[in-house]
Amino acid sequence: MKARILVIDDNPDIAHALKVLFTINNIDCEHQLTPELGLAALSEEHYDLVMQDMNFTKDTTSGEEGIELFNEIRQHFDDLPIILMTAWTHLETAVDLVKLGASDYIGKPWDDDKLIVTVNNLLELGELQHAQRSSAIKHNKQRQALADKYDLCGLRFQSDAMFNLLQITTQIAHADVSVLITGPNGAGKEKIAEIVQANSSCKTGPFIKVNVGALSPELMAAELFGAEAGSYTGITKRRIGRFELADQGTLFLDEIGNLSLDGQAKLLRVLETGEFERIGGSETIKVKVRIISATNTDIKAAIIKGSFREDLYYRLNVIELPLTALNQRKADILPLAELFLANQFQLTEMASQTLKHYAWPGNIRELKNVMQRASLLATDKLIDCDVLGIEVDLPNTMMQKGNDEVTEGEINAALDNASGVVSEAAKQLGLSRSALYRRMKKFEITL
Q: 0.85 cut: is pTM over it?
């Protein structure tokens, strides 16, 4: 499909010349004589680019009409490329409008070859931008559809990595199989376990959590299987274990990789038979429990070292859900930060950039703590870098909004960090989207 350009100029001769030029270059061109007619045409038809004059009334040279038209177009069509047509007397005004988001300006008379190159570049960038918007809309619809169909337990996310993991998580949640969630400390393994349980066939049953890695070998059996009164010093009445409490529901065993070998052997027996006895008791208790376990250790390496039983690993790991570190899914940082702020505070642009560029060794747990600290220290509803308590060396281009000296390497790095989303990369660089497009054009950077 041909690109469509709208020329808004009170001079029919200029419009005719542009129409001939664009037609021989396979571009459709239409013309309107006044700002009012131009705005009406934009509201009724789709155009890929606008070229507008700066003056429309006879003997008017201030450029105010062009400024008003530009602002009106930008208000209703914020992503539409706009090229300003100006005489040398209006050059300063045109430059000011470019800073405000105009795509470019051309002088009268113009160089046909340079104008065609400029227009083709803007049209190409517009196609990329449209594709990115369409992709973002598609992704948002997919995420919303997942949230509508399944209980995601209030999880906030934006990254593809988390979306893909949640698709698998909700798909296998209903199956009566053991699940092993792997990932670093503080990455959100317990939240994934909650989502599995909330969408399982036993979601109405109990959901019992226990950190088995924190239990001593002496306490592990009593904690998991229970104990009869008098079975050991200090117990005066029967103690119900976690397996018994979780009957007809789900038992979440956190930090399973730190369980002792003796504890592993006892756990394996229960997983194989569904039966156990309380400490000091002779009654065999049979339960039906869905097992979800989690670990931050490399279980396969522990098996090779002899510190983890291979047969238990395969019992626990019918389905593995690998959760990546927060710094590997940076798109989730700001949604999570906003969740922890509970819509009571607003992050400044520099605070947002600091959060996104911090390494987060403590993952989501650390992010939650930072947001709680910032909420307490903020003097108003605006959170800036000074109350975050973390240090990040941001690129100079982020410290100086609008800085023209952005290098090709910085642009490529920002685009890579933003997964190719130009608006996000522009924010990182402290530039407007159109300013970034111009620099991409300068360095011949394509997505």
A: no
